[in-house]
Design a protein that fits this description.
The protein is α+β, with helices and mostly antiparallel strands. The chain is built from 22 helices and 21 strands. The strands form 5 sheets. Strands 6-5-4-9-8-7 form a 6-stranded antiparallel sheet, with helices on both faces. Strand 5 and strand 6 (about 150-155) form a beta hairpin. The longest helix is centred in the last third of the chain and has 54 residues, at about 510-565. The chain is elongated. The model is unreliable at about 245-270 (pLDDT under 50).
């Protein structure tokens, strides 16, 4: 596994469990990209799910497809590594920038910079060398391997790489340093004796001149410096040059004595004493002002003058309040007063009005310039657009949160491990949990009946139900806190970031009330059908009774006439009597038919049903 970037895992092979577990337990597991071979079954894909592979192939797989997939996975792995390295570089650069803005101990800061660079790049040594007053003299002000090493003067004649940087103003990278032509025989032997493989020297430009060099030496496993690392080191070198605000470093490098420093603090030469600061801050992108003990401006750099629309010569000698015109002067004066007491403050937002009437929000930092006097250094940068954007983002976030919470439907989102990250008010009402309980203690699988959550994720990753990453409207059940199953209509989707699955989200509509209404409608339809059927039966019965009454009346009348003409001993009397009585019986049936008011049936010859005349007319009695 050492150095491996891409791992192909065959989950169809028997007896591979221990090897697979050893792979997952390896420290390198988080640094490799997995591609899995699985059986083309639901169980095969389920076995691959815990590994979270970058790609999954089903067996048998064609050789050309396998090669293509592996090449794609390797490419994505390289892209991810490059992004991670870039993120690490950016993170370190942000940390250094924050240290530059907040640390007043310059010597400790510079040593920390060299130490962290050496640790990040895994190199033998990182050194910060400032140029002295003489062209052949330098001073080591910080070294990564020795916090006590500082103020060590060196002869630049023994460091041709530094002289080359000073001459060209560009970085110098010496691969195969023991044989590099820039070094003399003495330097080559010294480099080889120390096991140094490569040397990089980066300029520290101040006011357009190289005032120092960041020197790095690679030994041991480190053989060279990559172009990406040189670009990163160049950025760090420029940031370090800009951040050298404490004039004591420059004064020390130029060989100033304590007597010279004391003399420059004399009141009659106060303005001149800050000239090195003025020269240094002239090329800083942030606004910088030096204030006296009365908060009057002694110096304002060009960036600050442009930011405040106030010419630097006119600002000199004026009170800070006049130059900045703050909306709340209490905040600004508290910042300056704290600095005059020896307290450093940073990141304080102050709203000001420039000389031309522009409204700005400045992020200000203030610190005592030196402990021996009351001078204060005030740095500021324009964060107007950033604060406005923050306000807009905050308003948008608040609006979206209110919108989600005001939704009648339940909205639930979960990360790829099933942990709930969003649970709106509708979800609270639907599931019986509070948002805090759900996000702290629940997984999304607990909200579904067993196995449903995995089935839904498998559906989302397929393309049959609305496309990959989407699931069209479907009917499912959620499990309420009480254990009750709640029928819902739901849609779901997977949210991607940079082509990778980030989280899933579902929208659920409670169907209980709708199902109750559907049942009521079904019952009403049934009753309506019965009513319509009864109405048909009643109408048919009335029609039949009316139509049958006339012929029955005739039959009964003629039968009665025949009975009157015949005697009981006549052979025809009995058949006529039977005709008469059966006609009366039919008349009784017709009478009942005419009184039918509802639809009632009874069994007749097995499973057949016929109309029950007695029940259909019994309510009339």
């Amino acid at each position: 596994m050492e150095g491996a970037a891409l791992v192909l895992v065959d989950l169809t092979a028997l007896g591979g469990g221990p090897d697979l577990q050893a792979l997952l337990d390896s420290p390198r597991a988080s640094h490799v990209t997995l591609v899995a071979l699985v059986e083309p079954t639901e169980r095969g894909f389920a076995a691959a799910e815990p590994l979270r592979p970058a790609d999954v192939l089903t067996v048998p797989v064609a050789a050309h497809e396998l090669i293509f997939r592996l090449q794609r996975a390797a490419g994505r792995h390289l892209e991810r590594e490059a992004q991670e390295r870039g993120q690490e570089d950016l993170s370190l650069l942000l940390e250094l920038t924050a240290d530059y803005a907040e640390t007043s101990d310059v010597e400790a800061l510079l040593h920390g910079v060299t130490r962290r660079l050496a640790e990040k790049l895994d190199i033998a040594r990182a050194t910060l060398v400032m140029l002295g007053r003489n062209a052949d003299e330098g001073v080591i002000v910080a070294a990564s391997d020795d916090p006590a090493l500082k103020d060590l003067r060196i002869e630049l004649s023994r460091y041709p790489e530094i002289r080359e940087v000073v001459r060209t103003g560009r970085p110098v990278v010496m691969e195969e340093a023991p044989t590099h032509p820039l070094l003399g025989d003495v330097e080559r032997r010294a480099v080889a004796a120390r096991g140094i493989h490569a040397i990089a020297a980066l300029p520290l430009p101040i006011r357009g001149e190289v005032r120092g060099v960041l020197l790095l030496r690679a030994a041991g496993r480190r053989r060279t410096f990559t172009p990406r690392e040189i670009d990163f080191l160049t950025t760090v070198a420029h940031a370090t040059a800009v951040a050298l605000r404490n004039a004591s470093v420059l004064q020390l490098v130029r060989g100033q004595t304590e007597a010279e420093k004391t003399a420059r603090l004399a009141a009659e030469e106060q303005a001149a004493s800050f000239k090195p600061y003025q020269l240094f801050f002239a090329h800083v992108s942030e606004g910088v002002a030096i204030l006296d003990d009365k908060a009057s401006v002694l110096s304002l750099n060009p960036s600050g003058a442009a930011m405040l629309d106030y010419p630097a010569p006119e600002a000199r000698g004026r009170h800070l309040h006049q130059v900045t015109q703050p909306v709340d002067d209490g905040v600004l004066m508290e910042l300056v007063t704290a600095a005059s007491r020896g307290e450093a403050r940073s990141g304080v937002d102050v709203e000001v009005c420039t000389a031309t009437g522009r409204k700005l929000t400045l992020s200000m930092s203030a610190a005592p310039l030196r402990d021996e006097d009351a001078a204060t250094i005030l740095s500021f940068r324009d964060v107007t657009d950033a604060r406005r954007l923050e306000d807009e983002l905050r308003q948008t976030k608040d609006f979206l949160e209110r919108l989600i919470d005001s939704s009648v439907d339940a909205i639930i989102a979960a990360d790829l491990k099933g942990r709930i990250i969003l649970f709106n008010k509708g979800a609270e009402a639907l599931c019986g949990y509070t948002a805090q309980e759900a996000m702290a203690n629940l997984t999304v699988e607990q909200l579904y009946p067993p196995g449903v959550a995995r089935r839904i994720m498998a559906t989302l990753r397929g393309a049959e139900h609305g496309g990959k990453g989407r699931m069209s409207l479907t009917r499912e059940d959620l499990v309420h806190r009480t254990g009750e199953r709640v029928p819902v209509n739901m849609t779901a989707s997977i949210v991607y970031e940079g082509g990778r699955e980030a989280f899933s989200v579902g929208i659920f509509t409670d169907m209980r009330d709708r199902m109750k209404l559907e049942r009521k409608l079904s019952d009403a339809e049934t009753r309506l059908e019965e009513s319509e059927k009864s109405a048909v039966i009643v109408a048919l019965a009335g029609t039949a009774a009316h139509e049958l009454n006339q012929p029955l009346t005739s039959v009964m009348g003629y039968a009665e006439l025949l009975k009157r003409k015949l005697k009981e001993e006549d052979f025809a009397w009995k058949p006529v009597d039977i005709i008469y009585r059966e006609a009366e019986r039919m008349a009784e049936i017709v009478r009942k038919i005419g009184k039918i008011t509802r639809y009632e049936t009874k069994a007749y010859m097995g499973e057949q049903q016929i109309l029950d005349l007695d029940k259909a007319t019994s309510h009339e009695d």
